[in-house]
Amino acid sequence: MTTLAPIIVTAVFGTQDFAWLDDLRRRHYPADRNRVPAHLTLFRHLAPDLAPELKRRLAAVTRGQSAPRGWIAGVLAMDGGVALRVESPELEAIRADLAEAFGAMLIPQDRAGWRPHVTVQNKAAPADARALRAQLAAEITRRPLVITGLAAWHYRGGPWEPLSRHMFA
Q: Between 121 and which of 80, 81, 111, 145 could a Cys-Cys bridge form, CB atoms 3.0 to 4.6 Å apart?
């Protein structure tokens, strides 16, 4: 019997953008802690019993809909790491609608303001984080980011287990 596990919702990247972001993450994220590929999290923890309703809503917001436009818009300093800031007003609107639908069922972290980003380094020594942040700030300019869909995953402590994938038109 499979135990119930919290659900994570992420954006799905285009093939080239995913390869680039995942390469950055593999090069800079501590290998012993890097259990999942590069991702943009919309929700960190939804209750497992929300799975049917979540799948229905994700299908509704993607089916026949154009993909939201997105951009890598800069480098973010994180406590012990570095992330790439993402801008996508259309994806923000989708997330806001989903957050409203699930309202009181969201954990405080998912209820708080959303800062879309892709983490490329975390839990690093402060000097390493500062060095990578400076390097990426010098290299990264605003660039389009292809968002092709939304995915839901079960979190079981290690690699995420796919629950559903919903692609934009």
A: 81
